[in-house]
């Protein structure tokens, strides 16, 4: 996931490409701003008009705030979106809105609700500043596998009460960075309702604990997309093989691919954002959802 090693790798890559650190830190915000401009949609598939609202969801651990966005007409399959380490912010609201415009009722959650309402940080780069890292450290520690699974169950239950959600359709989930393994936990939390899960440059997907995501696949009924960053694969080359073996043993359909892009490449405000590879990953997610929701 987004850690000191990943940050050093990405910074070195940008320096090799001729960017200094200040330029490196400012690139992501510009991309996010462009994506949010009317007429600058990054998705040819986006067509439906959308509406949105900030919502509060009761969970066993408290009240979780989230951004709910959906097409203005009709009922649609629901998707739970888990942001990266910097949490719910403008970049993920933009990404959620894009997915809603493709025909989904999207709940973009604040995984840090136990500690603070969103936004926690305004951009991905803020977490690498000493103040950002210090702010996030105790919040990250407050998130546990058990808590994430509990949250996911509450989010699914809430979505099934919303008039914009087609409860005859399965629910999907997607997650980025630290949110990647949360997608598996979402599928585990309510197997009967969650039909598809997509992880993008997810960290912590493979482990030996009984509740490690790779060991939970057999207790889910979802189809999977695991999009892995090149530098993550270089550090842990066997993890993709473990995921493949676990999915096969569980009888779970799984598309597992290493992308020629750095960790964080799918997030709009990431300095390492790679539009071409992000678009490919996005298209594979849409294909997954179309087939399984």
Automatic annotation (TrEMBL):
InterPro entries according to UniProt: AB_hydrolase_fold, Dienelactn_hydro, Dienelactone_hydrolase-like, TAT_signal
Entry annotated with the keyword Hydrolase: yes
GO MF annotations in UniProt: carboxymethylenebutenolidase activity
Enzyme superclass (EC): hydrolase
Dienelactone hydrolase domain ranges (all copies): 65-291
Enzyme Commission (EC) number: 3.1.1.45
Keywords (A to Z) from UniProt: Hydrolase
Gene3D superfamilies the record matches: alpha/beta hydrolase (3.40.50.1820)
Source taxon at top rank: Bacteria
Protein name: Carboxymethylenebutenolidase
Protein source organism: Novosphingobium hassiacum
Lineage: Bacteria, Pseudomonadati, Pseudomonadota, Alphaproteobacteria, Sphingomonadales
